[in-house]
Specification:
Layout: H1 2-8, E1 10-11, E2 14-15, H2 16-55, H3 60-69, H4 71-96, H5 99-105, H6 110-151, E3 161-172, E4 178-191, E5 195-205, E6 208-221, E7 226-238, E8 243-255, H7 260-267, H8 276-289, H9 292-307, H10 311-323, H11 331-357, H12 363-386
Antiparallel strand pairs: 1-2, 3-4, 4-5, 5-6, 6-7, 7-8
Amino acid sequence: MIKKKISYWVNGGIALIDRYLISQLLPPFLFSVGLFASLGVAIGNLSDLANQVVDANLPLASALEILLLKVPEFVTYSLPVSLLLATLITYGRLSSDSETVALQSCGVTLYRLFIPTFCLSLIVTVVTFLLNEYVVPNANYRATEILVQKINKEASFWQNKDFYYPDYEIKTLENGTINRNLRSLFYAEQFDGEKMKTVTVIRWLKQELNQIIIADSARWNAVDNVWDFFNGIIYELTPPNASYSQVIPFKAEKIALSRSAFDFARQSRDPYEMNIPQAIEYVQLLKLSGDDKRVRFFQVRIQQKIAFPFVCIVFATIGCALGSLPQRIGRGTGFGLSVAIVFLYYLLNFLVGSLGLTATLSPFLAAWLPNFFGFGLGLWLLWRLNG
């Protein structure tokens, strides 16, 4: 009877025990989100931006805009950590005040006490995913764009200068072997998002050097589905010695080439500046370019991007289990324990992710193994404590 009163006595459709636990979890959780996000922005960006303002003449208004644009990223990072700290503190206080023992004596299991935390972790997981998918990539891209425009900062993934793109013809032979032949090599000194400048294209026909195109500029013509080249020369070559057979100067010329080079240049971003559909589309372009190493890198990052929000459930499970231990866990102990757990998790994530980048593990396992391990550990601890 007491068990039913505690577990099922409802007010507004939610059991009072659930309302009580959520009311205990939310204040430390929200406080931690604000604290960790503020510290992350300050430590991760403030010093660097101050140096950019002083040394590289970055306008102060631009620096403040970048600082604000980085807030969503650090809020996303702070959500799982804040949930871990909140569960450690809340369940630690319940345990130290013997509330957990009292509830268990009334027939309430530790699994039942975990339900509101699990539900909260699901909500936080969804919020983390939405931020990480729809807000953070655009904010990060805009922050990089400001630095590139204002101080000409080098961005390793941006293809705005010294752009090259190898286009391969890929055929699968009857024996299953994949045969990849270079079809063309596209190079441009600059790319402004629409037009290539100082362009050189080398083309092969049946593995024989066939044509060289040099032009002042080129742009993709979406109407005719061809490239428009301006102010250049076409060198026709004759195999097998690749000697010049014809030299054709031109002011404007339409040339049928794959638009993959244009798409590749426009979509080149850091993986943290892409959402999942953009990253998947970019991987397809990378496969055409034959850059297997970068393909693997993006495949692992895509899986990690999907797996990251679910660390909220992992941390909530571990926090509930460790907080329910008989020893008292205060705010200071909870904070220190949170730091240790987060460090170990990200160390494991780094090591397993490295195995994915070296093709030792599949991209899926490289991203999800830390979550599987952490969630399994949390459930095992709950089982031991509940027994």
